[in-house]
Design brief:
Strand order of the largest sheet: 1-2-3-4-5
Number of helices: 2
Radius of gyration: 15 Å
Structural class: alpha+beta
Shape: globular
Order of helices and strands: HEEEHEE
Helix content: 25-40%
Distance between the termini: 37 Å
Oligomer: single chain
Length: 131
């Protein structure tokens, strides 16, 4: 597993999350969006919400005792809420009636026998936090 950088693991996890939420019928609006120093991993939409999704990917090994979502600390939550606030001000009219929702996607990965990464588990937490 050490052949994969943190960036490799993170990108793999975001890709896995995108596949997962597309299967749920969500539409991806943007990935890795920035507004100044604020950022979010995925912006998506469903019938009633604009989703601001923080993806946390971790290697599935015995040294990981915390859930990936534990890494979404109060500072990260505040920044994501600020991002959502500013983003919602700029929405096209077709999305203006949708409510913002903060979700967290936990992705656990491990190395496969082929030497590639594979998803062990995805835990998608809807409405993970609010103000």
């Amino acid at each position: 597993m050490s052949d994969f950088s943190k960036m490799d693991v993170g990108i793999f996890g975001e890709d896995a999350c995108v596949k997962y939420i597309r299967k749920k019928g969500y539409r991806i609006l943007a990935r890795n969006s920035r507004l100044g120093k604020l950022e979010t991993d995925i912006i998506a939409t469903n019938k009633s919400n604009i989703l601001f999704i923080e993806v946390k990917t971790r290697r599935n090994d015995k040294s990981n005792f915390n859930r990936p979502a534990d890494a979404v600390n109060s500072s990260k939550k505040d920044n994501l809420l600020k991002f959502a606030y500013y983003y919602m001000k700029t929405l096209p009219r077709k999305h203006a009636s949708k409510q913002p929702r903060m979700d967290v996607c936990e992705v656990m990965v491990e190395a496969s026998e082929k030497g590639t990464l594979r998803v062990c588990d995805i835990n998608y937490i809807e409405n993970a936090f609010s103000r």
